[in-house]
């Protein structure tokens, strides 16, 4: 299950910002779009993509991850093929909608929930391992995509991505995947049903519904911080090439960013996963927020290759810690039974926020001639909200097994 979740996370890359960003020059040239037009299409498509995420989460709770994941893979593969056929701005908006809704949204959601269904005391470490799929994708996909675009063109590259995703994941989901360890007489964390307590059914008795979760302070702080992380991270990834070149750096520096970012991301995910099973999660969230603030400050002041490399490593490390702690905290704080709906509500706001970041940076560049105003705003907001992370406390009704 852990391997399948990792592969599913990797498969979302054609719908993730780092995957789409590589196609941006080809899209602008083919469709004759300005930077603002392209970023607005991304904003609109992503904003619409957020709307059904809570519904998707409810379907996962009702029918199980397997059925919903099969639908996600088939739909996302079809979205990649559709993207290869776009001819105008309206079709591009529709393609972004499908890619973001089914890839960055639903497929990511089902992959994350898979880990939560199968792990509890080792959830942090398992989440870290699963997240390595995303880090590996960031390190490899942009370079492979650029090579493929050069060899067969951007349209065939997108179509081939969809076909490959379907061919690899569908057999695994249909033949191997199971929703919960209870389905195969196992307990969470890989033991036999009789070896570990509490069992999955007992865990379900102490879980919160979405309505109950929404009455806790932790839910709203987590929702706010996740949305900010999504907005800023997506904006940076989407505009990373022009941000670097606007500071007088070469495109090779920008392409190197993905590699350094991915190495740092993966390393910190492993460290963060181990810490998440041992250290208070609100403290780890605070450290991740402070690290992101520092990284954004370096990016705002960046004027050399050395500073670009420092930003890549710092941003990757802080993002890695934030992601793996986020993977761990939702099931531990709110339980499994209604986790799909709770995470679906969270993912709705996160996907919506991700639509704003690229448009803010692109609009700032068009209006002021640089990205500085938007970047300074990101630094200020991150710095202020870092303190809020310390206010994330365990909801009283949910018992944390690691305590």
Question: What's this model, at a glance?
Answer:
With 403 residues, this protein is mostly helical. It has helices at 2-11, 17-21, 24-31, 35-49, 53-63, 65-83, 89-118, 123-152, 154-175, 200-205, 210-213, 217-246, 251-276, 281-301, 305-334, 339-368, 372-386.
Characterise the protein shown here.
By secondary structure, this protein is mainly α. It has a single domain (2-181, 202-391), classed as Growth Hormone, Chain: A, CATH 1.20.1250.20. The chain is 77% helix and 0% strand. The protein has 17 helices and no strands. The chain has helices at 2-11, 17-21, 24-31, 35-49, 53-63, 65-83, 89-118, 123-152, 154-175, 200-205, 210-213, 217-246, 251-276, 281-301, 305-334, 339-368, 372-386. Helix 5 packs antiparallel against helix 6 (65-83) and helix 14 packs antiparallel against helix 17 (372-386). The longest helix has 30 residues, at 89-118. It starts with a helix and ends in a 17-residue tail after the last helix.
Summarize the SSE layout with pairings.
Elements: H1 2-11, H2 17-21, H3 24-31, H4 35-49, H5 53-63, H6 65-83, H7 89-118, H8 123-152, H9 154-175, H10 200-205, H11 210-213, H12 217-246, H13 251-276, H14 281-301, H15 305-334, H16 339-368, H17 372-386
Fraction of helical residues? over 70%
- Low-confidence segments, ≥5 residues, pLDDT <50? 194-205, 398-403
Order of helices and strands: HHHHHHHHHHHHHHHHH
Radius of gyration: 20 Å
Number of spatially distinct domains: 1
**Class in CATH?**
Mainly Alpha
Percent strand equals under 5%
> Tally of extended strands?
0
Choose one word for the global shape.
Answer: globular
Let me know the CATH homologous superfamily: MFS general substrate transporter like domains
